[in-house]
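ok so i was messing around last nite and threw this chain in just to see what happens. nothing serious, just curious
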Amino acid sequence: MRILFVENHEVFAAVVGEKFLAAHEVVVVPSLAGARASLAAQRYDAILLDFDLDDGKGVELAVELRAAGDATPIIAVSAREDGNQKLITAGANAAVSKLEFGKIGTVLSSLVSGLGPSPARA
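result:
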């Protein structure tokens, strides 16, 4: 599975990639601008989206994608519950707190099984 991980904490992203997402192709970007550029260049099966980023809030990206008709599964991955809730309200399909990241594989599987990349970028 190809995953876009929008996360600005480099060490956390590296640990998650090695420990929980090693079986997947993971592209990590630290900003909204990086996410937009990466999404314009390639398709993803899922997006892991943090709330607090270097250049804004993850909510902006979720709203943009859903407004464009992009149905790629988005999983909110903030350490803060209020951040995850705001991402869900903006269009994320699920949330996995950074404190419970061991559950990410199960959540990814349940959201992505049977779904391909978004037709908006196919």
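not much to say yet. The chain has a mean pLDDT of 88.
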